[in-house]
Design a protein that fits this description.
Layout (H helix, E strand, L loop, with lengths): L13 H6 L7 H11 L4 E4 L6 H15 L12 H4 L2 E4 L3 H15 L6 E4 L6 H9 L3 E4 L1 H9 L10 E4 L2 H4 L5 H9 L6 E6 L7 H7 L4 E4 L10 E4 L5 H9 L7 E4 L3 H13 L4 E4 L5 H12 L5 E4 L14 E4 L8 H6 L11 E6 L4 H10 L26 H43 L16
Parallel strand pairs: 1-6, 1-7, 2-4, 2-5, 3-4, 5-6, 8-13, 9-11, 9-12, 10-11, 12-13
The structure holds adenosine-5'-diphosphate and magnesium ion.
The site of magnesium ion has 4 residues, from α3.
């Protein structure tokens, strides 16, 4: 079995890793580190919790430590030139978590880590970056703001890391990520990691990497198969309360479809005396941090979240995942299930509440993930709420309104897809032009040929 030394890791960093109990490389680390250390691009697909973060931090750490940036006048380092590694992550919490992991790794070295994310004051982040950081972990939106404010430059980057790559290449983030990648030097090393890589994004991946090492572990098999119940939407909260009657269910992460639903469910649990926090886009950064800390320390029994919490978070206290609603994006089911069971207590269980509208999707999802698609009848003691049409609204009018809404959404999706396809075509054209114009010389230095800010 290979060791971190065999895989090319910087010997100086190993005692620190050992102190944190990290001795044997995981499969994704064993499979990618040697080539990543050698400078090759990587596209790696590996299950959640398999140590992908270290798989990119170690090569970055070695290169940045052994090849310091040039000194300018008086022997000082130029803060702009110091920024040589960028890690893009989709959410603030994940950026913070990666930042913490990077600090734990680089603590004893001269390398400095910066973290930048939106919905919090930009000026402290600008100051920190101006003081000089070697590695920046950022969410794409905030990074664009920092670039627009001339707070940093990507001209000297050696590494571009895209964590949760498929999420970063979906329509929400793609334009930002592409704009950022265009500002990075062509002769960078690009490392991409994800637990799921749908075939549709494969073409996009190819625009960002060059002859990458591909690493893939089968990830569709979830850690635990959810028990799925057929339950009408109106009775989902009752079913959740029923599950929580069992006091041994702690560290419960409940995923809902929207921020508003998160608010309603959290409120219902509060009213029933259950210590609950919530994590979604309408909460302030402070509230989100408090909720996460509360769950991590066991002060909160339940965390109600939207899919902002589905990706990458590592909270050992979480043991149970409830899919109150099915995820909107198919592959998020695997990510959700991957959020629990990181601690010593292990994974307890997972549930899916499937209402009549969701049955077909559930069957499709279950099949794709090799899970039992059958729905269970409600447990004894849960009496479904009677379903009655909302008062004052004629049902037929509502049905028509829903049909119109669905049609609108369908058209929007088609439009967005067309736009993505066109962007992709022009992006490929541009990249080809760029690479032809600037061949990569063997003695190329970072930033060569790249416009200075
Ligand atoms: P992923 O990004 O694949 O979901 P993470 O990188 O967040 O997973 O890692 C999950 C946890 O595993 C982290 O706490 C990390 O410190 C730990 N870890 C990483 N590599 C190893 C290893 N080789 N041995 C033991 N623990 C590890
Ligand atoms: Mg991760």
């Amino acid at each position: 079995m290979s060791t971190f030394e065999d895989l090319g890791a910087d010997a100086l960093l190993l005692p620190g890793l050992r102190r944190r109990g990290i001795r044997v490389p995981t499969a994704v680390q064993a499979g990618t580190l040697a080539e990543a250390h050698a400078g090759r691009d990587v596209v790696a697909v590996a299950p959640t919790g398999s140590g992908k973060t270290l798989a990119f931090l170690l090569p970055i750490a070695r290169k940045l430590r052994t090849e310091p940036p040039p000194r300018v006048r008086g022997g000082a380092m130029d803060a702009m030139q110091r920024l040589r590694a960028l890690v893009l992550a989709p959410t603030r919490e994940l950026a913070q978590q990666i930042g913490r992991e990077a600090e734990a790794l680089l603590g004893g070295t001269v390398l400095r880590v910066g973290v930048a994310y939106g919905k919090s004051a930009i000026s402290p982040q600008i100051q920190a970056i101006r003081k000089g950081v070697d590695l920046l972990v950022a969410t794409p939106g905030r990074l664009r703001e920092l670039l627009d404010a001339d707070a940093c430059s990507l001209a000297w980057l050696r590494f571009l890391v895209i964590d949760e790559a498929d999420r970063m290449l979906d329509m929400g983030f793609l334009p930002q990520v592409q704009a950022i990648a265009e500002r990075c030097p062509a002769e960078r090393q690009t490392l991409m990691y994800t637990a799921t890589l749908p075939r549709q994004v494969e073409e996009l991946v190819r625009t960002l990497v060059r002859e990458p090492l591909r690493f893939g572990e089968r990830t569709t098999a979830a850690r635990a198969e959810p028990v799925a119940w057929g339950v009408d939407d109106r009775s989902k909260t009752l079913l959740l309360l029923h599950l929580l009657k069992d006091a041994s269910r702690t560290g419960v992460l409940v995923f809902v479809r929207t921020r508003r639903r998160a608010g309603w469910v959290a409120e219902a649990l509060h009213r029933n005396g259950i210590r609950t926090g919530s994590l979604h886009g309408d909460r302030s950064q402070k509230q989100r941090e408090a909720a996460l800390a509360g769950a991590a320390e066991g002060r909160l029994r339940v965390l109600v979240a939207t899919d902002v919490a589905a990706r990458g978070l590592h909270v050992p206290a979480l043991r149970c995942v409830v899919n109150y609603d099915l995820p909107l994006v198919d592959q998020d089911l695997v990510h959700r299930l991957g959020r629990a069971g990181h601690g010593d207590a292990g994974f307890a269980e997972a549930f899916a509440f499937v209402d009549s509208q969701e049955v077909d999707r559930w069957k499709r999802l279950a099949k794709a993930c090799d899970m039992d698609p059958r729905l269970k009848p409600l447990p004894e003691g849960v009496v479904p709420q009677p379903v009655k049409p909302p008062a004052g609204r004629p049902t037929e009018a509502k049905r028509q309104a829903t049909a119109r809404q669905q049609k609108r959404e369908r058209l929007e999706r088609i439009e967005a897809f067309r736009k993505q396809r066109d962007d992709l075509a022009s992006q490929r054209g541009r990249l080809r032009g760029k690479q032809a114009a600037k061949p990569i010389g063997t003695g190329a230095r970072p930033g060569k040929g790249v416009r200075k800010p």
